Fold Histone-lysine N-methyltransferase, H3 lysine-9 specific dim-5.
Amino acid sequence: MAKIKATHIRGACPMQTKVFRGLIRAKSSKQDNKDEKENCHWCQLRSFPTHKTAPITVVNEIDSQTLPQNFRFINGVVLGTGVTAADLSFRSGCTCGQDEDCQYSGCLCLADLDQDEASDDADDDHSGLDSATRASLSPARKKAYAYHTHGHKAGLLRSKLHTSKLPLYECHQGCACSPDCPNRVVERGRTVPLQIFRTPDRGWGVRTQESIKKGQFVDRYLGEVITSAEADRRRDASVVYHRKDVYLFALDKFTDPQSLDARLKGPPLEVDGEFMSGPTRFINHSCDPNMRIFARVGDHADKHIHDLALFAIKDIQRAEELTFDYVDGASGDSEELEGKIEDMTKCLCGSSKCRRFLW
Ligand SMILES: C[S@@+](CC[C@H](N)C(=O)[O-])C[C@H]1O[C@@H](n2cnc3c(N)ncnc32)[C@H](O)[C@@H]1O
Ligand SMILES: [Zn+2]
Ligand SMILES: [Zn+2]
Ligand SMILES: [Zn+2]
Ligand SMILES: [Zn+2]
């Protein structure tokens, strides 16, 4: 293991000195400020609306490496050339009169769920509910949404979804319910402070600054949403073809060659987090991870640009490294891999379930 150096950079970035100089020059020009924000990681992180409540910090106690200069932090996906969100006229939301209605099958946001996926409240914790509320939980109303409503698990993903590949349907800006609706977990965003840190052997990694519960939403995987053709072009331009794959995630949850919606016929759009993303772009792979990626849909008209939402699938202690399985359990085609071992990256996840190679 590499010797730990005393360098400790809290939220620093290569441009930090320049930024401070910029501040001293005191608003010399708006353009200067804009340029600094373009280039300064710390300025980008500080401008996040959650900076006070759930800051992202950066530390390196291993070597003198800084975050890649060609990378910038963003707070939402960026639609690349040729990628558009649905037209206003195609947008729709639910008409639920009360927020609590958005948990049940009648909510239009949950209309695309297979009814077999609806479940009763059996795994909710009802202790602490008054008798009137308990009585109102009619067993006839099938709970369809993805989260627990009551007790200490409120807001956490239901256990049966932890291993499923089903998409999560959430309420959104176009719905009649309030921003506090229980079905807006991903929309409300990250609440956990995270730290990007230098690992001894896998470059940068991410650890949590607070404990995280099993089923808790952590953050979205952000990036530039690009066409499949552009993704292929970027793969081809990469020195090692598969190296690019660790940053590209296909938005293929709803891809169906038979679809009447041209945007869902495929090939799917992809999210490239290499050059612009949130802290999740620095999360390393593990063959026995503590998080999983779920497809999350808000407005149904935007299924082609669905979110990639990371949820904890284990209880995670404060300061523990966050990981997810880059291929979600899928193993490579052994014929395709034959003879390419020298091109492959050895997996250093250290778990007893390790599949030995990253790709
Ligand atoms: C999406 S990036 C993660 C952040 C990366 N560590 C960095 O410093 O930018 C993926 C890259 O991280 C490294 N990596 C991630 N998980 C790894 C693992 N389990 N074993 C070895 N290298 C890993 C590989 O270099 C991989 O190409
Ligand atoms: Zn609703
Ligand atoms: Zn709602
Ligand atoms: Zn809704
Ligand atoms: Zn592994």
